[in-house]
Amino acid sequence: MNVVVVESPSKAKTINKYLGPGYKVLASFGHVRDLPAKDGSVLPDQDFEMLWEVDGASAKRMKDIADAVKSSDGLFLATDPDREGEAISWHVLDMLNKKRVLGGKTVKRVVFNAITKKAVLDAMAEPRDIDVPLVDAYLARRALDYLVGFNLSPVLWRKLPGARSAGRVQSVALRLVCDRESEIERFVSEEYWNISALLKTPRGDEFEAKLVAANGKRLQARSIGNGDEAGKLKALLEGASYVVDTVEAKPVKRNPGPPFTTSTLQQAASSKLGFSASRTMQVAQKLYEGFDIGGETVGLITYMRTDGVQMAPEAIDAARGAIVDQFGQRYLPEKARFYSTKAKNAQEAHEAIRPTDFNRSPDKVRQYLDADQIKLYDLIWKRGIASQMASAEIERTTAEIIADNNGEKAGLRAVGSVIRFDGFIAAYTDQKEDGEQSDDGDEDGRLPEINARENLAKQKINSSQHFTEPPPRYSEASLIKKMEELGIGRPSTYAATLATLRDREYVIIDKRKLIPHSKGRLVTAFLEGFFTKYVEYDFTADLEEKLDRISAGELNWKQVLRDFWKDFFAQIEDTKELRVTNVLDSLNESLAPLVFPKREDGSDPRICQVCGTGNLSLKLGKYGAFVGCSNYPECNYTRQLSSEGGAEAEGAALNEPKALGTDPVTGEELTLRSGRFGPYVQRGDGKEAKRSSLPKGWKPEDIDYEKAMALISLPRDIGKHPESGKMISAGIGRYGPFLLHDGGYANLETVEDVFSIGLNRAVTVIAEKAAKGPGGRGRTAAAALKELGEHPDGGGAITVRDGKYGPYVNWGKVNATLPKGTDPQALTVEEAVALITAKAGKAPAAKSKAKPKAKAKAAASDDAKPVKAAAKSKAKAKAPAKKAAAPAKKKKSEE
């Protein structure tokens, strides 16, 4: 009996059926061990020794594999046919050697590109040894990502609070998104005009021709720059006679593209199906692993992590046969088509992504697949079969026309395309980004019959004004394409890199476009300012090329790490002397359009408009960066950075206070503002100004004078309780709208109730609350009764809240009970600070000490998982005697 190790349990069941009773197929469930998410997992001082960790679930699976190997005749490592798959086989073999269970047994590596009986049996018949250079490339990549993440991220945390992580590929991808946003901000729109003529042939057919020359000069794109120039040219055409100069009909052949690679599949699925890169890989994984069709589990596509574009000879033959059967003999080219990859290195690829059987058309498998699966399979099948079909034959007709107005001449051109034979377009039509049809289609339209030297009748002259537009933001598809062009990352990393940017909230996806969040732009600006080399496109691409050369056996992986670490470590050490003020000065300059947006009145955007003398600047707080005034605490103006990096973003912070009117009682101005905790209404200025945050669901653009007065006047007295004789009031706290009566609180259902509830209903709500009792389900959580503003020493806002034992003041982790008889709504900032200071001074020593540092440093590389690390660390701290349960292994597409 032989043991076969694969990655997924579903694959194990299928392959066991193919191989029969002489084999036992077990699943590793992806990687069996990984680098712990903590310092010391890679040791540069010990020649980059790597300390691997096995979680509980993997340890159990490895024990099952080891037990099976003990009583076996041999071991076949049949993990996926790429770098990660080779690494998993190496990990399994290394752990089995350490367990000493092999005992001289035969160990072989087998790879198959499709989960079909023939592919599996053919692979088992041609085993090989583990590809050591490919494993070395994996080790080098893993060590590089770890070293960058675990050394660069702590610098970010110290110098740029609110930043979460940095990574070798992740940070460069983020830079691409941020650089594009900067391009958009710097873009200056230019006016241009297009002029065309609607003309009629002697046979009565109309067509449109565009102006391409005037006064003996060729007109370039957008060369007509203003309305006056356009008006003169239009007048020339209005009074002109028209004659056809030449007509040229030119046959054009358009060839199909190659089958999908990982990158092109992700791009096409995004453009045509609206799938994210992660979703595409999830669906493709299922198509690869297979479905029960006719009582047998069959993989429908070949392996989906590849940068190769070639198909196996037998697949090409099958595709050609399917073309004749489904499209006809004319659609079959005389010779098979062969493609070569444009990728810098395709050593990981066995084949392009294609159907395992071209006779298994989408219609034949539709009943076995869900909606997303059939959409993606249909795309792969059509692209695969189109790659072997005949060229499309297109006739492109160009008519050159002369307009003559009393000797003043102009040239016009009409272009039309006619598909004479659709060829591969019958199966698959390429699309440009966002669904724009490419030249494969009939985008120029069809021209009527036009003959040289014949006169044309003018029907209408059209002139249209246009303005140049900034470059578009990246979509997932176009970012992947750009990364591939620059040689950044590899097919298996694209989906994980994009997911990391989303999870870290460095980018926001809006209408399929990637918009950099302010924290993403801050991280990028910091890295560009102080770690320039490590976010350069060429440097990252060069490092990827070195990794490829390692996998080809051309470079020593340890030497590549030594060379990298020497310079990188020196750069990290230099930042220890870096002061936060240096960082802020640099960010103020590099992010000026974001931090200091232009004002409509033309005033200096760096001067505080509240006090008129302070300078605005980036500030770093507990929750990240914000803009504040240099005159703090005398001027407490603050403003959030736009969350999406652009002023047009929905919900963007208010750049300056908005005047709403004057309080008729106090005579103070009411303003709408935006602070670190969101938009709020303020009455007056200075420390004594009263503030009220906008309730949940209220948008800044909807706030008018009446709503502002209603908010700032809270709490609202409703009337005296008929039994107690004490006032009932309504207000809005941290946990929502509430009623206050005799020191007790009751929740209200909506914010509107605060302003509209009457005495009878208020008495009923209070009675219902009392009936549930203090331990009832209706008990309200501590509510923020009043917000007093920032503590003079910083560290967050001071609020007055309602607790189990009465009202108290809260600042950070300090809670100070209000003296008996004190009105919570009348409490001032000074009184609250005094209570907090007194409370903090009485705190027991044990409580004032910092908590034990149980958090593992978060991994910031493309593969490291800081959240998981922190979770593990917390679990160990809580239960040292019992090992925490390990999280489930993630698939490679999610790493």
Shape: globular
Rounded mean pLDDT score = 83
- Largest sheet geometry: 6 strands, antiparallel, barrel
Number of strands: 32
| Distance linking N and C termini | 34 Å
- The fourth-level CATH homologous superfamily of the largest domain is Topoisomerase I, domain 2
Parts with pLDDT < 50 across at least 5 consecutive residues = 432-442, 643-655, 775-781, 843-895
Structural class: alpha+beta
Under the CATH scheme, the architecture of the largest domain is: Orthogonal Bundle
The fraction of residues in strands falls at 15-25%
CATH class term of the largest domain = Mainly Alpha
The level of helicity is 25-40%
Number of helical regions: 25
Q: What is the domain tally?
A: 5
Provide the CATH topology of the largest domain: Topoisomerase I, domain 2
Radius of gyration: 35 Å
Strand order of the largest sheet: 7-8-14-13-10-15
Describe the protein's topology.
Blueprint (H helix, E strand, L loop, with lengths): L1 E5 L2 H11 L3 E5 L14 E2 L5 E2 L5 H15 L3 E4 L5 H17 L6 E4 L7 H9 L6 H28 L10 H17 L4 E10 L5 E9 L2 E2 L8 H12 L2 E14 L7 H12 L3 H13 L1 E3 L2 E3 L14 H15 L34 H4 L5 H16 L5 E14 L2 E14 L33 E13 L8 H11 L4 H13 L3 E4 L2 E4 L1 H13 L6 H15 L5 H18 L5 H11 L1 H4 L20 E6 L2 E6 L8 E3 L17 E5 L6 E7 L2 E6 L6 E4 L11 H8 L3 E5 L6 E7 L2 E6 L2 E4 L3 H6 L2 H14 L10 E8 L6 E7 L2 E6 L2 E4 L11 H14 L2 H4 L17 H13 L17
Parallel strand pairs: 1-2, 1-5, 5-6
Antiparallel strand pairs: 3-4, 7-8, 7-15, 8-9, 8-14, 10-13, 10-15, 11-12, 13-14, 16-17, 18-19, 19-20, 21-22, 22-23, 23-24, 25-26, 26-27, 27-28, 29-30, 30-31, 31-32
Helix pairs in contact: 3-5, 5-16, 5-17, 6-15, 8-12, 8-13, 9-12, 15-18
